Amino acid sequence: MEDTTMMDDEQMLFQGVNFTIIPSSIAEDRRQQLEDALVKHGAVAFPFDAADGRIQSLPQITHIISTTSDFPDYHQALDQFKHVVKPAWVDASLKSGKTKNPRAFSPDPALYMNEVVICCGKGIPDGDKDAIAGGVLAVGGQYTHALSKPVTHLIALSMEDERVQIALDKRLRCHIVLPHWFDDCLRVGSRISERPYTLPDPEILDAEAGPIPPTRVSPHIRDASTPIPANDPAPSTSSRNIQAFKDKKVMLDDDLSLNDRLKGVIQGLILANGGQMTINVDEADMYICNYREGEDYVKASQAEKDVGNLSWLYYLIAYGVWTNPMRRMMHYPRPRDGIPGFQDFKISISSYTGEARVYLENIIKASGATFTKTFKQENTHLITAHTQSEKCDAAKEWGVNLVNHLWLEDCYATNKLQGITDPKYNYFPARTNMGEILGSTEINRAAMEKIFFPKIQKQKQKSAKSSAKQSEAAGSSVPDCVGGDPTARSSPLVERSKRTKTVPEVATPSGVRRSEDKENHTPGTTGSRGAKDRALTKLHDSAPDIAKFEKEMKRKGGVIHGGRRDKDAGNGEKTGEKAKKAKGRESTVSKRSINEVDDDDDDDEATEDEVEQPVKKGKTSKKAKLTPIVYRLLVSKNDRWTNNLEHEANDKSRLREIGILISDDARKVDILCAPKVVRTKKFVSAMACAPILVGTSFLDYALKHNKIPTPEKHLLTDKAFEKTHGFRLDEALERAKQNQKRLLKDWTVFVTDSVSGGFDTWKDIISANGGSAFLWKGRTTNITASKREVDPPVEGEVSQNQEEDDGNVLYLISEGVKKEFPLWVKFRELAKKHDMVPRIVKTEWLLFVAMAQYVHWDPEWELNEEVVNAAK
């Protein structure tokens, strides 16, 4: 008789598991595969009602399979102690023959290491191993003492480590990183890129690594960078089914100020996809408004209805599935008056570009602070993705608060000013662009309820007052962080270390979330919390004064001898010679000759405050009011001002008075003026801006008539150029509009030092098109390269006109001379190391791509030893 004992044991692997699968992010064939495997091994399936979008049998269910925490019943499931796991939990359990710890497979964004399995090399001290093991477990990951296939990260100090050699010999697919990577992940409370920490040549140990490369747009902010969408949704013309609205009643608040046409479009989309409209908040399932205020907002929030803004509604229309409006900052209504304490802040940002920059600008404005594109001494904060920028250097000299975006996000998530002394807000991991984790913070549910829609419970209030009197003394302990909030985001490991010095059993972040809810307080702690809250309130009220004090302390001379003392003296006291000396000191605090900085990496449209004319200081002097800038114009190959600086200055002044700013910045151009099409650095770089091309007659007319001419009457045409190079200028400009300066986004292009025009020329052209340029000297130790993801064009997203790019080609721009041969050999080694195809090209390749604004290849542009030898 066949022995079926082992088979029976395997089939009972998931006995006691009652599960449902959230289908929105799992393909149908994968969903069926998971369901069959679970049922085969003893689990019981509960169907998910896709039409309703909710889990009907939640009390009976033990496990929810989902790739995301973004579904309606997620928080309710946590409150009922249900396991929410990724599909990988099923695969791992089947592979090992025993059910894995569900916590290690949680889609909870707070458990940011939940897909990480760490093993340490032999060279890591035992004490450090214990700390790493405890840390990774606290944030959802796993630790193993044995080096095996499931390991995703091997932490070592060098390639000579015994375990590193084993990993290489066995070809284990794991990251081999320095322990600094894990330390920095814990410090910022998120999983950051392993690239700068990867052995054998980690960038963080290279003093000449060059500029920090830009990062891709964070998926957390895609279509969620603004509270008010720029474009209206298109009327429903297809049979596409938007499940998010099926059997749902939607209420649009009056504060949206929608016109009749737009309201009709939105209502039509909702009705066409199974939804209904209502004007009664009690009937509504979804409530859409601009601000966190009003009786209807409070009612909807207290009833735990879906409360979001217009941007969230458009997101549902675009993607067709439900998402939590608190998941993304700009999908939840804004505070009408901003965040308390932000009204006096003037905030600038650095090293964030594109959609990331728009996202941060909108949060700053929604918080009630003033956003300034140009960075000045009067700014209070600079938010930056890394510290390698001119703005950051200026902030350090001027004593301006320098923080990463986590500070701003946490303030907005809790609607409360967070202290900038928290280490995670002013820490910048070496060689890391913090933009890669932008938008990972969610709106804090407990904070919103506490501030905007508290649930009134009289009995609870009485007990709170009674216990508060009994434990008044408990309020003497106040956190060091000014404006600190127990609801602020921090890693579970940090929270655990604050509570006790011993190492208790690791608690899940879901437990932390529940402890923040007033209804789940442990009896006897209410009074202590109330006293602490009062102490925090007093400390919070003093925050502006403390912030000023800290800022003055950073200045040369400190508070007592700082350069601003006499400026603040408003009591009529005569300062005499002391004031003159103080002003003298103030003028020498900074070595800079200007009092504002505009980042080179800011790619958005400039504002008027960039162009401030020098103002003469005096009792009666006033800042001259300039005509608003209508066009930013770049001139290339125009001889009108050659060797005549005075004539040039006069003409530029006259043009500025009528609204034309002559600029040399090829990345911010409205009009490009030249006698003909030329391939200068300015002209080629400016093509990425999709400017209007005009001839020199445009300037002639403006200066003669002292007014701005119609650009279309002075368009630049060059049929000979178009015939020679095989593309039309008007089509190239149309492609440039599509590309939005991202033609070479995610590209790394190498350039040799001997290229005609110099490295900086080609670097500027590549950067103007969103790429990164690196000087190639044949040293592979400090260089990394990776394949580009080439996805088919998606409707509504920016096209990069890269249809001819396979994503695996690595380019080196070089000169066709024999002295470059050794560099070519090394370059091919680099490409082979990263499994890419090396392509050594003439400068003609980049000139064509940047001018035509699409990726194209012609074999005539390729360089190799045979081509050079044949030419000789």
UniProtKB/TrEMBL annotation:
Any Gene Ontology CC annotation: Cul8-RING ubiquitin ligase complex
Biased composition (Acidic residues): 596-612
A single GO BP: double-strand break repair
Entry's transmembrane regions: none
Positions with biased composition (Basic and acidic residues): 530-555, 563-595
Domain BRCT: 9-107, 107-199, 342-417
Record InterPro entries: BRCT_dom (IPR001357), BRCT_dom_sf (IPR036420), CellCycle_DNARepair_Reg (IPR053036)
Protein name: BRCT domain-containing protein
Region (Disordered) residue spans: 462-621
Source organism of the structure: Clohesyomyces aquaticus
Coiled coil residues, start to end: none
Database matches in SUPFAM superfamilies: BRCT domain (SSF52113)
Compositionally biased intervals (Low complexity): 464-477
Cross-referenced PROSITE patterns: BRCT
